[in-house]
Design a protein that fits this description.
Helix content is 64%, strand content 5%. The chain folds into 4 domains: 242 residues, no CATH class; 187 residues, no CATH class; 111 residues, no CATH class; 80 residues, SH3 type barrels (Roll), CATH 2.30.30. The chain is elongated and about 125 Å long. A hairpin with a 5-residue loop joins strand 7 and strand 8. A 5-stranded antiparallel sheet has the order 8-7-6-5-9. The protein is built from 29 helices and 9 strands. Helix 12 crosses helix 16, helix 14 runs antiparallel to helix 18 and helix 19 runs parallel beside helix 21. The protein is mainly alpha-helical.
Length: 746
Amino acid sequence: MNRQQSGSNASRSRASLNQSTRHRLILTARKQTGEYLNRLVAGLFEHLDDAFFEPADVLSSDLMQSRFIYSIRELKQVRESVANTFVRQVQKNLDAFFATESVAIGKRADIFHQLDKKSGSLALMNHTELEEDLAVWTVIAKGEQRYQNALQQLNVLWASFTGGEVTTNSENPVGPCVLANQFRVALAIWPGDHIVKPVVYDVFYEYVIAQLGELYQGLIDDMRGAGVQPVDRLTRIKSRSSNNARDGHDFPKPVTPMPNPADPFAAPSADLPETSLLGLVTLVRDLFESQKKSLGLSATARASAEQLAPMLPESLVDVLANLQQQFADESVFDLQAAINSNGEFKRALQRQLGKLEQQQHQQVQVLDQHILDVVMMLFDFVLEDPVMPAPMKVVIARLQIPILQVAIHDRVFLSDRSHPARSLLNNLSRAAVRWVDDGDYTASSLYGMIEQSVNRIVACRTQDAALYADVGEDFSEYLHREEQAAKIAEERLNQLAHGQEQLTAAREKVSRELDRLMNDQMPVAVYRILNDVWRDVLTLAVLREGKDSLSWSKMLDVAERLVDSVRLRSDEWERQKINREIPLLLADLREGFFSISYDANKTASMFKQLQLCHISVLRGVPPQMQPVSWKHDQQSSAAREQSSDSKIQTTETLKTGQWLSWVGQDGKEKRAKLSWRSEIADLLLFVDCRGRKVVEMTSIDLHKLFRDAQARVIQEIDEPIMDRVMRIVYDMLRQTASEHSSDIPA
């Protein structure tokens, strides 16, 4: 659906509401929001004392305690003004939203203060401002994570109601982004201490943002009750994609958390985990200079005699774009060359920033420097990732500069796990870790499609999320087709393997029964019938009818009667009795021969030899006997049973769907997924990402690989690359902070 179609659909929905209904819904939304927020803000101030005194009690310094207590007193003096300004401005935003279908204050770029160009202030490099920026940022990220389901519903319903495009969370007039920014504006009249303000924002989240579920549900119920129908929530991204990113391409949808029974719109947890880039930036911010140095991070900029202007994010993005052109010309295919190129890029970036500081008297803002450090650290670990094949690491690493540009330009990337850029990176990596180097580097291969996706991002100078959404959508469509084809191929392989297993099981059962009937010495004719013909007859009966079928029982009875028919009998009456039974036995034998379409000439020869045996037996003369080699089959069966009994714990715990990496006989790494394992025979079938058979192994073969440290289970293959790498960096930063904390003076 294009943008024009989207607008017409929304317009039709808007036209379906009469003017009085629209007016009533607007007034109701304004009144509900005002009353609800007034109640929540009142609760916020009631709980401020407890929130302030708790940290004040643990502060060892009398001076610090005084600063906390004095801040409480000051905030109480402006309490009414803060509350009124906050609620009044939110209601103004609602009015503006219904009139113009957008909220300027909600733009994410406004989360961070605009520079005072006249004074050339260093506001954004100021530690106080940085603390407040991160506090507001955290409130927004946690709130949007908590109420992502409700916000999605509100966004699409309001698009229908206003007749416009689907709004984003940052444009939603009652979303956490707008509310947090308006609270910050209202709080500006309070000269709170920088160590105190984060506490206020914590309380604001707990007693305002985290309590919005009832308001959201009321607004949604009112619009649905009035007949407002939602529009496609993907319209906005698609329309932006078609209009703003034509020069640039369904990426995996984010997993929606299960709702909390107490609050149907709330996710189970609103904490920012180690998989949040915002959490990493916060950790870097809190490191001491010596700790940053130990990790190779940039030192925090210090005030100088000559005041430097803070570098605008747009300027920093331009610096990165120029470096992108420089490094995009390099054709790097080797992993070590990619690592060297990465190091050279970092040095070139520092040189370029140093020139700007000397020539244009501009300095990178503290927060932007933290973002650069964190994202570059993440890509360092991508190049060191033990899961991804080396050629794929080289390709994925080329996204470092574009991702840096996105992180600087659109800082929600740091906290939004469903951001198109992050989704694309995860999706490309999810396919890359399953790739096997089979020599196919063509454009239609998996390697070729990943390379094309990366090239499209690198070739565009835009940081628009729509470009990443477009690329992600195209790659996901390709991946979906490949996965469907792989699924079909894998199912066919499994069916073939299962059929082979059934055949093996049937043959094992037949061998056991024939071993029971055969003696060390038996007539050659009987042995040939049992071993060359009846073995297949019995096997066919098991496969067609089952091991408990009448057909199986009948054919097994024929084999038993055949063996009994050539047994010597001393009694004349018994010889006459077997003589009467032979015709029926021969008829049953012919039926079995016919069922497997046995060769007619060989059939006649076998029956003639059997006839001679029967004549000898009826005369009381032993037929010509010959030792038979049936014990070979029995020994093979015993060997197979012994192999099956020798399974190793490692292979027993390996589950279908798990991926394995091992070193092949050619010394190259192989990786494949366990697609099927026999429940009867000792056999494991492995396939690649396209459903093609890679290898069949026994548990003994696999155990040898594990024993020689030539194989391992790839446990992390399903974990998104961003989550996995961020968790590693998070743990490293936490460990660094704890190891050096004892060396830092109080």
